[in-house]
Amino acid sequence: MATAYGLVALIIDDHPFQRSYLKRILLKLSALEIYEAENGVEALSILKTAPKVDIIISDLDMPEMDGIEFMRHLASGYQSPSVIISSATESSLIASVEKMALEYGVKLLGIIDKPVDLKKLCLLFDKHHEKKAPRSALNNTFFDLKSILAAVDNDEFEPHFQPKVELATGRVVGCEALARWRHPEHGIVAPYAFIPLLETSKQIDELTIKMIKKSAEACKQWHEEGLIISVSVNLSLVSLTDTTIVDRITSMVKDVGLEPRYVTFEITETAAMTEVASSLEILTRLRMRGFGLSVDDYGTGYSSLKQLTRVPFSELKIDQGFVSGCSHNNTSGSIVESSVQMASKLNLCSVAEGVEALEEWDFLKAIKCDLAQGYLIARPMSNNNFTDFCKAAIKP
Ligand code: C2E
Ligand code: CA
Ligand code: CA
């Protein structure tokens, strides 16, 4: 369930309970950013300053400025988000609200009863995505190396965090930091549009350093709020040619005030099997300094046990290609199970990534896999939303 993935939402309701109820639902559906307003006046002032809002969920009957008047103002503004009306109003009124929205040119996705039903809300989000389909194709835009490097300099990249949950207890114990480009025109851009180019041109170091710094800072902030969570950052092996990088990373993390044991570096299995001595030296030194080391995409690289033990890994991340369908596909199921057993024998924490279905969760729990990560739990989300997600998860 992640139909609000990447969306910026605005909730308008005069009842704090209704707002927090909707906010919790949107977080579960992985909204990127959520704004809240008590009435239409407040909502309009948020729209003036907030980045592009994709969806508004608004009550109808509110003091100061009600939902009807709000829609009239919205139609004349420069933002044109989709609107969902959530209302306890009887159905006779609803037809006229729909007609009015149409006349104003407001993109009304639909009207739902309070309390909001999750399934109905998801259907309306699907309608939003259908309408937006041509725009999301922008995420396929080709970016050249020069503009990517300029964006790195301009600090347009930020980590989004996807929770890692302990299968035995359901607790959030860690997360993976995934790079997102907050592009001034195209919105949030996914890694495939910039990582490969940075890697092949061997110019990924600056992004790596910035990702580590921002992730460590976020992690320190969670600890200060009582959320003791670790963070994993992806490390490209082309970053590992410069042997001074270990000192740079270590002092950066320590300067933030975070112990290295709360930071793990993920290296893909294929990259980790390198024979390059300097890379092995760097990985070993990172582990010596107390950082965690994880074999990412395990199962795709045909590594032997001997090769795996050459680097002092602390975690094994089983590739989503095997996890997906592991509960009903015998081959994937066996691969996942033997990987978990091997991890346990080597004293490595086992992580299944790409967990999308409850049956997969049950299977992984039964074979005693340690951690799970995937859309079933949550999509990657902004730091604010991730923090709220963790706080909501620890509430009794
Ligand atoms: P990865 O390290 O294997 O990260 C996991 C990817 O799977 C992420 O894609 C995540 O959003 C996605 N994912 C998580 N759960 C599920 C699920 O249940 N189902 C499916 N289908 N996918 C799921 P994302 O964020 O697009 O990242 C893609 C890749 O880009 C990453 O793969 C990683 O290799 C690379 N990457 C991302 N950030 C960085 C970075 O800061 N540095 C480097 N070097 N690479 C990065
Ligand atoms: Ca990874
Ligand atoms: Ca992976």
Give a brief rundown of this model.
The chain has 396 residues and is α/β, with parallel strands linked by helices. The chain is built from 16 helices and 14 strands.
Please explain how this structure is put together:
With about 400 residues, this protein is α/β, with parallel strands linked by helices. The two termini are about 20 Å apart. About 45% of the residues lie in helices and about 20% in strands. The strands form two sheets. The protein has an eight-stranded mixed beta barrel, surrounded by four helices. β4 (about 80-85), α4 (about 90-105) and β5 form a beta-alpha-beta unit. About 40% of the residues are buried. α2 (about 40-50) runs parallel beside α3 (about 65-75). The chain binds ligand C2E and calcium ion (2 copies). The site of one calcium ion has 4 residues, from loops.
Short descriptors:
about 400 residues; alpha/beta; eight-stranded mixed β-barrel; five-stranded parallel sheet; 14 strands; globular; binds ligand C2E; binds calcium ion
Strand order of the largest sheet: 6-7-9-10-11-12-13-14
The stretches of 5 or more residues where confidence is low (pLDDT under 50) are 133-140
Helix content: 40-55%
Protein structure class: alpha/beta
Q: Helix and strand succession?
A: EHEHEHEHEHHEEEHHEHEHHEHEHHEHEH
Molecular shape: globular
The portion of residues forming beta strands comes to 15-25%
Bound molecules: ligand C2E, calcium ion
Radius of gyration: 23 Å
Mean pLDDT, rounded to whole units?
A: 88
Largest sheet: 8 strands, mixed, barrel
Distance between the termini: 22 Å
